[in-house]
Specification:
homodimer; Mth169, Chain: A; 3 strands
């Protein structure tokens, strides 16, 4: 079973990478782009076959290793 | 309108960050984790109000700046 963990900077936390991307997009001629937030995404193959248990395990992995809960939020979902 | 661009290493492309995470999870006692792939995710506020046009513009941004199409795949979706 595959689970996806998406890690994003919390609302209100400065995101310099997102800011740089927004600036670069404007310089490249892309118009109408406002705020950009940059995060990370992880896809994990897990042996667990129960979707609820797989999500619960992935949430523990996110809280322990994949995300920094002080400045980042994470979302876990089972993916096909 | 918010669009999300998810950028992942193409299948078959070595992902050292994913490998390192898989090793770290095993050392932390998380069992049953196989392959891990690490990618990036971007959330962009765009002025465009037509979802199809917003997705099309975000796909051009991904192909130009956000992803390296030689080694990365990207997926664009409109998010709430």
């Amino acid at each position: 079973m595959k689970v996806q963990v998406r890690v994003m900077p919390k609302a209100g936390i400065l995101d310099p990478q997102g800011k740089a991307i927004a600036g670069a997009l404007a310089r490249l001629g892309f118009e109408g782009v406002g705020d950009v937030r940059a995060g990370k995404v992880f896809r994990l193959d897990v042996a667990e076959t129960d979707p609820a248990k797989a999500k619960e395990a992935a949430a523990r992995m996110a809280g322990t290793l994949l995300a920094n809960p002080v400045i980042e939020d994470y979302e876990v979902e089972v993916v096909p």
